[in-house]
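Dear Dr. L.,

I hope this message finds you well. Following up on our conversation about the binding site, I have prepared a predicted three-dimensional model of the protein together with oxa(dethia)-CoA. For your records, I am including the exact sequence and ligand specification that went into the calculation, followed by the structure tokens. Please feel free to forward this to your student if that is useful.
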Amino acid sequence: MSKLRAVITAVGGYVPDYVLSNGELSKMVDTSDEWIMSRVGIKERRILKGEGKGTSDMAAEAVRQIFEKTGTKPEEIDLVICATTTPDHLFPATANIVADKTGIRNAHGFDLNAGCSGFLYALDTASQFIEAGHKKKVLVIGADKMSSIVDYTDRTTCVLFGDGAGAVLLEPTTENSGIIDRLLMSDGFGRKYLHMKAGGSVQQSSHETIDQRLHYIYQDGPHVFKHAVVNMADVSAEIMAKNGLMPDDLSWLVPHQANLRIIDATAERMGIDKSKVMINIQRYGNTTSGTIPLCLWEWEKQLKKGDNIILAAFGAGFTWGAIYVKWGYNPK
Ligand code: UT7
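The resulting structure of the complex is given below.
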């Protein structure tokens, strides 16, 4: 009998309407369009506005889009995994809130936090449920409202991040397509370079922690850069070698969108032409768990059945990894 694989059968995405430009940011902190474009490659990012709006609202939009595109009914979904670093609340899980908002009633769901590698971790986890024959229709979401943890007085981080959500529907197949291989890594030593100091069980929220602005992202950018640029490139090259893939065999690289220089270094290491690299960092910035599914969403109409695609990411933890996907459908 042919091996059961998990294949992506639809993609949905959502970015908020509000555009935060480099020009507007340079009125808030001492920065410039020239610095941001040359060091990072971001022109603008989207911000979710509105009282009481959170990560689940963006994720629910992406999920509804999948239902509309495919005719899938909410009651057919049997698992929801939401990768996020900015859940609506510490508990309950945002996956459950998304399920409630979209009418999903027959599924179990949970959140997964692996920083910017979250979507890859979630995709891998979801695929195991399908390959084991336990689940048939799984929603894998990558969503983050980064503006909720960004300090807009800190120029070293506030220019980097944006809000957005993407989702994919994962189903079983016996064809030679879907999630073919994965290499996922983590190393907790890196936590000191990228974290949020307060609001967890080690340092609980207090007036003092708020006054000290400890509920925002802390990042030692150059240290993170050093590890990201090596590890994302290494793991992408490694998964190619493991699967006997040459640069010409690849249709697309879908990299996490943290810094154009990291993306370029990864593409170079893989020997893949820049025209095959999905890049939308200039419009959305770093949406953390959202970057990879948002790329798939934007490029969906260009993807063809049988395309060999490498998804790659690096993020807080440290976490990093690559997934080799053989695309399962032609543009509809
Ligand atoms: O997605 C999760 C993983 N995260 C990443 O992969 C991010 C990895 N890190 C990076 O992408 C880069 O390190 C940053 C984009 C965050 C920073 O770029 P950099 O080239 O590493 O800059 P730097 O931190 O070394 O700073 C260079 C200079 C400093 O000034 P001095 O000390 O040389 O006078 C900074 O204060 O640039 C200054 N600077 C800025 N200037 C204008 C830092 N941020 C800004 C800014 N505008 N926004």
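In brief: The longest helix spans residues 221-242.

With kind regards,
A. P.
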